[in-house]
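Hello,

I think I submitted the nicotinamide-adenine-dinucleotide job twice by accident. Can you confirm which output corresponds to this input? Input:
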Amino acid sequence: MPLSDAEKLTIVAPALRVLLAADGRPARVTKVEAPPAGALAVALPSDAESPEAIVAALRAAVVGKAPPAVVVEGVGAFAVTACRTSGRAAGKVAVVTGAAQGFGLEIAQDLAAQGACVALADLNVDGAVEAAAAICRRQGEGRAMGVAMNVTDAASIRAALAGVVEAYGGFDLFISNAGVLKAESVKTQSRKDFDFVTAVNYTGYFLCVQAAAPILAVGHAADAAYRSDIIQINSKSGLAGSNRNGAYAGSKFGGIGLTQSFALELVADGIKVNAICPGNFFDGPLWSDPDHGLFVQYLRTGKVPGAATIADVKAFYEAKVPMGRGCRTADVMHAVYYLIDQHYETGQAVPVTGGQVMLS
Ligand SMILES: NC(=O)c1ccc[n+]([C@@H]2O[C@H](COP(=O)([O-])OP(=O)(O)OC[C@H]3O[C@@H](n4cnc5c(N)ncnc54)[C@H](O)[C@@H]3O)[C@@H](O)[C@H]2O)c1
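Support: Only one job matched these inputs. Its output is below.
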């Protein structure tokens, strides 16, 4: 079947990024309306209807050249610039889902501070756009973008990733972070709530990888030495059961199964797939939101016997952690950079729980 224009875009731009890499870093490739002077014109053969054929045609046309722009007939014009950032994520482009707040926001902020360009994808598009603007003010124009994405909707994911490809040419790191929690007893939880948690945490991860993997694979087809990463932000509840929280724990256990299976399959495309399993993020909005956070909910419902204040509830949960405190984004980032830097590991679930969950 012939490729659509949108499909061609998600092959051409990621291939150009890697084929025009300089000093081991993919180029920054941005779709533009009018190409600058000196653009290289490329016509794809009419039978170039697969990623391999398109990559081969582009390789023949651009390798060994350093054009300021490439115009690919029937696909579009792309400005090409070198990426000159520094840091642990220098030169990378990252997509982070659920990045309007919480872990996702702080992960995106850290990656940008470490030299990545980041796309903050969220159902809350206003929050994502606002957060991206704040990152650009700190790190420089064009270093972040906010995109609307509903991880339970394949068309929404595809549209968001097409926007990222137009802005940055592709991405090297996909962080599947969007997640929801509705904790309730198995005896009373509604089917609707169970399905909601499963749709976002489990099916959403599947849909995201299904859309992201072909784009990441193009980079490896362009250069066999190119590696990319998918990282799922899982949970300690993906490693050990969670009382009265079965929908969440089940969705996260399932996420480990997907991670291991995707890792086995996508290794052929140079894509590592791993999960990070954080302990409770007490400082984030899920726990600390003054109106809807878990601390205030648990205080109101008397879930912690004898607790009279939020501080009592927090102390109760902190006492469950051998290291005596909740998980912070800085702890998670150590695992993110480990997984990116480690080229000899895939399909793993890395606990970041202060000793609360230990692998057997
Ligand atoms: N907070 C914790 O204690 C904790 C602990 C371990 C793991 N986690 C995991 O970390 C991840 C982030 O958790 P958090 O506490 O920062 O969450 P949060 O509730 O603070 O933020 C979640 C974000 O995801 C977005 N989102 C929700 N549904 C979405 C959808 N369908 N499509 C796109 N975006 C959507 C929300 O708009 C929000 O911006 C989740 O996967 C969660 O399971 C959280």
